[in-house]
Each structure stands twice: as C-alpha cells, then as structure tokens.
Specification:
Blueprint: H1 3-30, H2 34-56, H3 58-70, H4 73-98, H5 104-126, H6 128-137, E1 156-159, H7 161-166, H8 168-175, E2 181-185, H9 186-196, H10 201-220, E3 225-228, H11 238-249, E4 253-255, H12 258-266, E5 271-273, H13 274-280, E6 290-298, E7 305-308, E8 314-318, E9 326-338, E10 341-348
Parallel strand pairs: 1-2, 1-4, 2-3, 4-5, 8-10
Antiparallel strand pairs: 6-7, 6-9, 7-8, 9-10
Helix pairs in contact: 1-2, 4-5, 8-10, 9-10
Length: 350
C-alpha cells in the first residue's frame, strides 16, 4: 500500500468531514435543509481530498527528501549553522524592533526571522569551503608538530562505470597519486550490475570484471572507497546524473569515456581522464633517438612494419616489413600525438 493511497484515503475523510460541517453551517445560515448541504459539500470534500491530498502531503515530502539526498553533508551542516546564526541575530533584534509603533512592531520581528534565516543559510552555504578549511586548520587539542588535515583529504572523486570496468583505476589508486575519497553512486553500481547480468557474454564479462575491480579497490586500495545513495531526481541517464551530482558536490569525475568527458567539460565540471593520464606518462622519444622494437605485423603502407612498446605505444617502421618477428633498432623520425594515443614513426638504424 503506497503512501499516496493512504494520504488520499485520509484526505478524503478529512475533507468530507469539513465539507459536511460547512454544509451544516451554510444550511443554518440560509434556513435551508442542512442535510442536503452537508451531503453535497461532503461529497465535494471527498472529491477534493482524493485529488489534492498527495500534492499537499506526500509529494512535497518526497521532493524535500530528494533535495536533501542530493545535498552533500558539508552543505547540510553549513546550512544548519547558517540557520542557527540567522535565528540568533533575529532574536537579538526582535526586542528593539517590537518597540516600533504598530503595525511595524507587530510585523517586522517575524519578517526579520525569515530574512536573517535566509541570509544566514545563503552565506554559510556559499562560503562552506572556506569555513571548513578554517575549522580543519584550527582543530583544538592537536600538537603543533602534527600536520593539519588538508582540503584534499576530504575531496570526493566520482567514479564512472567505464573507468571501473577498465580496471586501471585499481593500479592508480595503489600508487597513492589520488587524494580524497572515491565515491561510487548507487546508480553507477546498479548499471554495473545490469551489465554483469547481460545476456551478451562480452558485456557480462566486462561487468564481472568491474565487480572484481571494485572488490579490489575496497580491500587493497590506499584511497578510501565509499558507496553513496545520493541520486538525482527526474534524470534517467547515468552520465547526466553523474554530471549533475558532480556539480552539486563540487567534485571531479574520474572516467575514460570521451563523450562524458566532453559533456562534463562543457558544463564546467572537472574531469580526471585515465586515458589522458596514460598518454601523459608514456615514454617520451624525440626525433633522432634510437629504440628497440619487435616488429610483429605489417603496416598499412607498402613495406611498413609495426611494433609496440611495453606501454602500448605503436611504432611504425619504414621498410620494416622484411623484419617481421624480429627485434630491430629504430631511429625515431616523427612522433604523432592523436586522440587514440601516441604514434612513433621511424626507420631501421644502419
């Protein structure tokens, strides 16, 4: 039995009673049949109660719960402190304002409560990062030699489904280069489970690999991993939810999805792209430098041979076709950076 159904039943009874009561009063005022007015207005109350009760009871509560679920703990705490500060200021000003002549003395104290409460919440929420930074630096009871907690230690990093399936995030987390908490929303976990239960064997294997990566992250990672139930109401696509949630939490998204990367950047959301990181840490070769490569296949152009370095960088060797399955020394002639990665062109050294 849903909450909306229960609310409709209760509202129907309440509005029917109110309609019947008003019908009796109206009948007495007009010297008419009270029973007729009571029945008509009672039936009208039943209809009104069935229609509007959810809109004034359960649905506002559900919307409020959704709003609170989307807010971060820092925002909620900052809003609470802002409300307390606003109410204290309003209470201090209420007495002198109440001494004003009527109607100002009667109305302005209530207006002051509303105004200062709003201002307190707005100011504390807007400056929440500065406030928590000050509180972290000035924690009483800590020795002077103990380093203060930095803002990076409390930063949340949202994980996308693609970066979990990719698997490299587990190795990156072990290195200690990531600072903050890896935050995995429940809707990302649901999408991962859906992929793991797919009828397609390839998708099923990728989903199960993502589950194994999550388990490894939780057990062996030096970075804390947390699963959150925060969701975004009214949005169905996982990527859209991630972007909106990242904007609300002021958190970056860790992904290797090119489309999500572009959408997030267009909306001002910071993105940590694993592919860009992998390209950035690959070995750097300049034209004229020698390198050893094992040629394993033919290239697209006539006479070319193709080999790969240990980090996956493709090496295209001119006239390397005759050296298939052999390791040769190559002199770099050109380095080309593409969206797919780095490509090195060279020729066999004499």
């Amino acid at each position: 039995m849903s909450a909306d159904f229960i609310a409709r039943i209760v509202g129907m009874v309440v509005f029917a009673a109110l309609g019947a009561y008003w019908g009796v009063i109206l009948g007495q005022a007009t010297n008419s049949r009270e029973e007729l007015y009571a029945v008509v207005l009672g039936l009208l109350g039943v209809l009104v109660g069935l229609v509007i009760t959810p809109y004034i009871t359960t649905r506002p509560v559900r919307a409020l719960r959704g709003l609170l679920a989307r807010l971060s703990s820092h925002t909620l705490v900052a809003g609470l402190f802002g409300l307390m500060a606003g109410l204290i200021i309003a209470a201090l000003l209420a007495f002198p304002i109440s001494l004003l002549p009527s109607p100002f003395g009667d109305v302005l104290p209530f207006v002051g409560v509303l105004l200062f409460s709003y201002l307190g919440i707005a100011v504390f929420v807007m400056r929440q990062n500065d406030i928590f930074s000050v509180l972290r630096v000035n924690i009483p009871g800590k020795s002077s030699g103990q380093p203060a907690e930095t803002a990076d230690s409390s930063r949340a990093i949202l994980l996308d489904t693609s970066v979990i399936i990719d698997g490299r995030i587990a190795d990156i987390a072990k290195t200690g280069f990531l600072f903050g908490t890896l935050l995995i929303p429940r809707f990302v976990l649901n999408e991962l489970q859906y992929i793991a239960d797919s009828a397609d064997s390839l998708r099923r294997q990728r989903g199960r690999r993502g589950m194994e990566v999550l388990s490894e992250l939780q057990k062996e990672s030096t970075v804390p991993v947390r699963i959150t139930d925060m969701d975004v109401e009214g949005v169905r696509e996982v990527d859209d939810k991630l972007v909106i949630l990242a904007r609300q939490l002021r958190a970056p998204i860790l992904t290797n999805d090119y489309n999500l990367n572009r959408i997030a950047e267009l909306q001002g959301v910071p993105v940590l792209n694993v592919n860009e990181l992998a390209n950035a840490v690959k070995s750097v070769f300049l034209p004229g430098e020698p390198l050893n490569v094992n040629i394993i296949q033919e290239g697209k152009e006539m006479g070319q041979g193709v080999g790969y370095l240990d980090d996956g960088t493709m090496v295209v060797v001119e006239d390397g076709r005759s050296y298939l399955n052999k390791q040769v020394t190559v002199t770099v002639t050109k380095v080309l950076q593409t969206a797919a990665g780095r490509m090195i062109f060279g020729r066999k050294s004499d």
